[in-house]
Amino acid sequence: MEKTYIMIKPDGVQRGLIGQILQRFEAKGLKLVASKLMVVSKAQAEKHYQEHVERSFFPELLGFITSGPVLAMVWEGDQAVVTCRNLIGKTNPVEAAPGTIRGDLALHTGMNLIHGSDSVESAEREIAIFFEQSEVQSYTKAADQWV
């Protein structure tokens, strides 16, 4: 089974949307295998957003992601990366389809509630930034045969 990294950003935590967002992944049939509420350190943020280091918005991005608690998670399922990205919606909430997390709940690109890995390779890299291997659980759900 494929794993992906999902993070509810500080704006999603502050707006009290954790439960609503988690329900969408669970309803889809994905399995939560790791989670923790945490404040992202500057070092973690720099590693996580390394591809944006040369962009003008990088300092603002670091300031935002380290501004308050996030819910860091690992979800598992068949084609988890693509499935989660489809649930999340486009980066710009104005362009995100209705029915997606960003399309339904977000207003601004800079504060768009949630991050999801964009590839299996990114997922592996991002999971390693936020979780020790021992923190990612492996278990079987009774419903797995139906999903």
UniProtKB/TrEMBL annotation:
<comment type="function">
    <text>Major role in the synthesis of nucleoside triphosphates other than ATP. The ATP gamma phosphate is transferred to the NDP beta phosphate via a ping-pong mechanism, using a phosphorylated active-site intermediate.</text>
</comment>
<dbReference type="InterPro" id="IPR001564">
    <property type="entry name" value="Nucleoside_diP_kinase"/>
</dbReference>
<dbReference type="GO" id="GO:0004550">
    <property type="term" value="F:nucleoside diphosphate kinase activity"/>
</dbReference>
<feature type="binding site">
    <location>
        <position position="102"/>
    </location>
    <ligand>
        <name>ATP</name>
    </ligand>
</feature>
<keyword id="KW-0808">Transferase</keyword>
<feature type="domain" description="Nucleoside diphosphate kinase-like">
    <location>
        <begin position="1"/>
        <end position="138"/>
    </location>
</feature>
<dbReference type="GO" id="GO:0046872">
    <property type="term" value="F:metal ion binding"/>
</dbReference>
<feature type="binding site">
    <location>
        <position position="9"/>
    </location>
    <ligand>
        <name>ATP</name>
    </ligand>
</feature>
<keyword id="KW-0418">Kinase</keyword>
<dbReference type="GO" id="GO:0005737">
    <property type="term" value="C:cytoplasm"/>
</dbReference>
<dbReference type="GO" id="GO:0006183">
    <property type="term" value="P:GTP biosynthetic process"/>
</dbReference>
<feature type="binding site">
    <location>
        <position position="85"/>
    </location>
    <ligand>
        <name>ATP</name>
    </ligand>
</feature>
<dbReference type="GO" id="GO:0005524">
    <property type="term" value="F:ATP binding"/>
</dbReference>
<feature type="binding site">
    <location>
        <position position="112"/>
    </location>
    <ligand>
        <name>ATP</name>
    </ligand>
</feature>
<keyword id="KW-0597">Phosphoprotein</keyword>
<keyword id="KW-0963">Cytoplasm</keyword>
<comment type="similarity">
    <text>Belongs to the NDK family.</text>
</comment>
<protein>
    <recommendedName>
        <fullName>Nucleoside diphosphate kinase</fullName>
        <ecNumber>2.7.4.6</ecNumber>
    </recommendedName>
</protein>
<comment type="subunit">
    <text>Homotetramer.</text>
</comment>
<feature type="binding site">
    <location>
        <position position="91"/>
    </location>
    <ligand>
        <name>ATP</name>
    </ligand>
</feature>
<feature type="active site" description="Pros-phosphohistidine intermediate">
    <location>
        <position position="115"/>
    </location>
</feature>
<keyword id="KW-0547">Nucleotide-binding</keyword>
<dbReference type="GO" id="GO:0006228">
    <property type="term" value="P:UTP biosynthetic process"/>
</dbReference>
<dbReference type="GO" id="GO:0006241">
    <property type="term" value="P:CTP biosynthetic process"/>
</dbReference>
<dbReference type="Pfam" id="PF00334">
    <property type="entry name" value="NDK"/>
</dbReference>
<dbReference type="InterPro" id="IPR036850">
    <property type="entry name" value="NDK-like_dom_sf"/>
</dbReference>
<comment type="function">
    <text>(Microbial infection) Catalyzes the phosphorylation of dZDP to dZTP, when the bacterium is infected by a phage that produces the substrate for the synthesis of dZTP (2- amino-2'-deoxyadenosine 5'-triphosphate), which is then used by the phage as a DNA polymerase substrate.</text>
</comment>
<dbReference type="InterPro" id="IPR034907">
    <property type="entry name" value="NDK-like_dom"/>
</dbReference>
<keyword id="KW-0479">Metal-binding</keyword>
<dbReference type="InterPro" id="IPR023005">
    <property type="entry name" value="Nucleoside_diP_kinase_AS"/>
</dbReference>
<keyword id="KW-0067">ATP-binding</keyword>
<keyword id="KW-0460">Magnesium</keyword>
<keyword id="KW-0546">Nucleotide metabolism</keyword>
<feature type="binding site">
    <location>
        <position position="57"/>
    </location>
    <ligand>
        <name>ATP</name>
    </ligand>
</feature>
